[in-house]
Amino acid sequence: MFKLLFALLTLFLPLLSANVLQKAIDDAPVGSILKLPAGVYKGSVVINKPLTIVGKEDGVVIDGEGKGTVITIKSSYVTLKNLRITGSGDRHENIDAAIAISEAKQCEVSDCTIDDSLFGIDMEMVSNSIISNNTITSKDFDLGLKGDGLRLWYSHDNIIRKNSLIHSRDMVVWYSHGNLIEENIGEHCRYSLHFMYAGKNYVKNNSYKYNSVGIFFMYSKDTVATGNFIKSSLGTTGMGIGLKEVTNFTIKDNTVLYCAQGIYIDRSPFEPDTNNWIENNKILYNSQALHFHSLSEDNIIKNNIIMGNIEDVVNDGRSSRTYNNEISQNYWDNYEGFDKNGDNIGDTPHKVYRYADQLWIHNPDVKFFYGSPVISLLNFLAKLAPFTKPLFLFEDAKPIVKIEG
After folding, report:
1. How far apart are CA 262 and CA 284, in angstroms?
2. What is the band of 352 on the pLDDT scale with cuts at 50, 70, 90?
3. Which UniProt keywords apply (predicted)?
4. Domain 1-189 in this protein, CATH class
């Protein structure tokens, strides 16, 4: 009898004006699967038991009507699939979101479309869960006033895979460890991926384009970023990959293209007697390939292709000690040495200096002309006949002469 009533309720849910979806959730036994037919289900809902809600066809819309969070999950073992979730509130202090999950494990949100919501998916103290194949956009606000598309807070050992964050603000991973972040897309956001106080995360094969910052790692450790494609970080300070006070990081096999700053290194590695590894990356056609800020030594920078950049290396202060990094076997397209024995290693080191005439490093007014023919000519003249002794930054003792393959 219960099954018959439940089937009838499911059939007529879209036709009823009250929040019958919440009633169906409340009435469903633990572990039930609610298969929703197409229709608009108005009103916010709370899920406080193990439950699955699936759109059994396209066109299933859960509309929060512009008030608060649309779906609040306060239980483990909850699954949402094939839904469109829209119409959250717009209060930042309340973190109004399409989906909010808290103090839960083994939840899943897959194949959902989230739009017109301040925050997309907010995860607080969530573990061993899957967020996959969702498309997330924020409300039509200015970029800084949008909410985060995906937010992990004290959330560990989750899989974040094949999601698209478009016209959102940030994807943040704060105080969260052991997460796999793989094959996601971020476009027209602020920080397409932002880490803080996070460790042992794996960032793999993501694509980030037309954001202010591609990936920024802060106050974190023991993380690998590999196979990511970062293109066209926007603005005069647009950044491909940023490292601020991070330790034991591996940045490998990434491509950073058309950014103002390719890889930004600030006081990293942070812990003494440790290293970061920056290897096998392609750093191409950026304004600055490598930007060092503050004390930054003991990085191992090897086997990278550094080509087509206006400046290969920028050191914006004398405290960076770039010469204390291990820099070797990189390809520099402006290397001027020879390879007489044909071993593809330059016969002389590739030495990099900073010239006092490079005014645009510190002067934003001059930087307006950065890359112009006039500045390029001044740069050439400064290297040809510098007014003062140039500052030695570092040398690559074994520069690669040709790119093989």
Report:
1. 8
2. confident
3. Signal
4. mainly beta
Task: Give the pLDDT confidence score for residue 126 in this predicted structure.
Answer: 98
Strand partners, 255: 229, 282
Q: CA 175 to CA 205: how far, in whole Å?
A: 22
H or E segment to which residue 124 belongs: strand 119-127
Backbone angles phi, psi at 194, to 5 degrees: -130, 120
| Average pLDDT score over residue span 170-193 | 97
Amino acid making up residue 394: F
Question: pLDDT tens, 277-292?
Answer: 999 999 999 999 999 9
Angstrom distance (rounded) from CA 11 to CA 287: 59
Smallest CA-to-CA distance from 187 within 166, 173, 216, 170 is with: 166
Mean pLDDT value across residues 201-219: 97
Given a cut of 70, whether residue 18 has pLDDT beyond it is: no
pLDDT of amino acid 12: 47
Q: Does a cis peptide bond (omega within 30 degrees of 0) precede residue 269? A: yes
What does the alpha-carbon distance between residue 184 and residue 207 come to, in Å, rounded to a whole number? 6
| DSSP 3-state of 14 | helix
Q: What is the pLDDT of residue 321?
A: 80
CA–CA gap between residue 395 and residue 267 (Å, rounded): 20
Tell me which of 35-49, 62-76, 300-314, 343-357 is least confident: 343-357
Q: Is residue 405 within 8 Å of 366, Cβ to Cβ?
A: no
Who contacts 241 (Cβ-Cβ below 8 Å, separation ≥6)?
Answer: 214, 215, 216, 217, 225, 228, 230, 251, 254, 256, 262, 263, 264
∠ Cα 240 246 249 (to 5°): 75
Instruction: Give the residue, 373 or 73, on which the prediction is more confident.
Output: 73
Residue 32's Cβ-count burial label (10 Å; 0-12, 13-18, 19+) is middle
DSSP string, 227-289: S-EEE---STT-EEEEEES-EEEEEES-EEES-SEEEEEES-S-STT--EEEES-EEES-SEE
Q: Residue 209: beta bridge partners?
A: 187, 231
Helices (H), 162-235: none
Percentage with pLDDT > 90 across the chain:
76
Give the pairing of strands 350-354 and 391-396.
antiparallel
Domain locations along the chain: 1-189, 197-355+390-405
Check residue 71 and report its DSSP letter. Answer: E
